[in-house]
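Supplementary Methods, section 5.1.

A reviewer requested that the exact input to the structure prediction be made available. We therefore reproduce it here, unchanged from the version used in the analyses.
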Amino acid sequence: MSFPPVKSVKSVVIPATMRAVVYRGANDLRLETVPVPAIQRGELLVKVAVCGVCPTDIKKIQHGDLPPPRIFGHETAGVIVKIGPGPSKFRVGDRVALHHHVPCLKCHYCRHHAFAQCPQYKRTGITAGFEPAGGGYAEYVRVMRFVLPGVVKIPARNTFAEGAMIEPVNTVLKGVNRLGLQPGDTALVIGQGPIGLMFTKILRLRGITVLATDLMDSRLKLGRQWGATAAFRADAPNLAQKLQKAAPCLDAAIIAVPSQAAVLQAMDLVRGSGKILLFAHTHRNAQSLLPLASGKLTNSLTQPSQLPLDLSAICALEKDLLGSYSSDFTLQDEVARLIFSRKLDIRPLITHQFPLAETAAAVALASAPAANSLKVVVISL
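The structure derived from this sequence is encoded token-by-token as follows.
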């Protein structure tokens, strides 16, 4: 994928207004003209080149979880066009990948390496206006001082799209680290979309044997290309037998799709002391409906004997049910090396690009992917 060259920013006149895609309510995205955000001392103004469409933002847009107006988009890369007063390690003209969450590294959560729970981390430090929400679906963004440590310069040979992928790759690497697997272990990656494929590749780079499942045959083929030893349809009636034949002992399962059934399946498949990683269950306040023996549905925890999840698997069999959410700031340098060296070449993942004016269409495709679609990005240059 190629992108238009960037004009010399030394001669760029920053306009007073810009185009941005504003969230006005559930499934309501509008292309509007808004002020270019003003920056303060030490902050950056970045002209956006590329912003990826992330499932987390899709859920917020589709479910109307947050009050409007907001400008979403947080997988962002672009060019610095202005720097606020004061010393800075950056220069106008630097091509950069942005990181909208940076922890304080001092609080209780940071001391326990639970960065995503840090109060500072939960603040969004990049905005195109309104309540800060990432701002990548706009022509310019303001980068606040507290997230500057997460800004990464993009080498000359690499694309803006590669820079925009630093944040999602970081989240995947964090998840892999949470599992603590050893070379020679075996893992199942459920879902071979962009995130699942990155899990498959990074696990293989670490010497893990990977099995993969998905509902699309095209993605099963990609799973094998990205390092899966075997890949099976997730709806196959004899799936458990096929997986057990391919790998009699599973040490871990990664749930890269928001499926309750996949979690229960994974709990059954992993061996004692195995680990199940929830990665895609990010929709807040969504209670899983668990079937009762009667066939009715409930979200109550008052009848534990009728829940399909066998809690002795966690206690007596010592299976770990883990969660991994968002990124790990301390992995930024490692992630940048992985991407920019192209040891993890993410370029084939990016299958569709939309102009800023068609952001709603980009979100629609990413939320209901076609057989030939993987990572969808929005282009602002």
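The chain has eleven helices and 18 strands. These observations are discussed further in the main text.
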